[in-house]
Amino acid sequence: MNAIERNKTWDLVELPKGKEVIGVKWVYKTKSNAEGKIERHKARLVVKGYKQQYGRDYEETFAPVARMETVRAVLSIAAQNKWKVYQMDVK
After folding, report:
1. Rounded to whole angstroms, how far apart are CA atoms 62 and 21?
2. Would you place residue 80 in the very low, low, confident or very high pLDDT band (cuts 50, 70, 90)?
């Protein structure tokens, strides 16, 4: 939670009128290397999808996440091919 607050991952806002709260849960994983030694601990916050309804709140709360390795690979390919890269402002 400290890292999420420090990195300003999200903003706490008032629930809009007419909207219902969708529950979330924390999912924890321990990542191990090839020798079986613990490499790192991961935690992520996920929405309880069974509460969502398509056309009502499904598209609003779905947020795909890319792994940093994937982002680096795509940027590397773009740099090698001299492609333009744009930043999209999400509000």
Report:
1. 14
2. very high
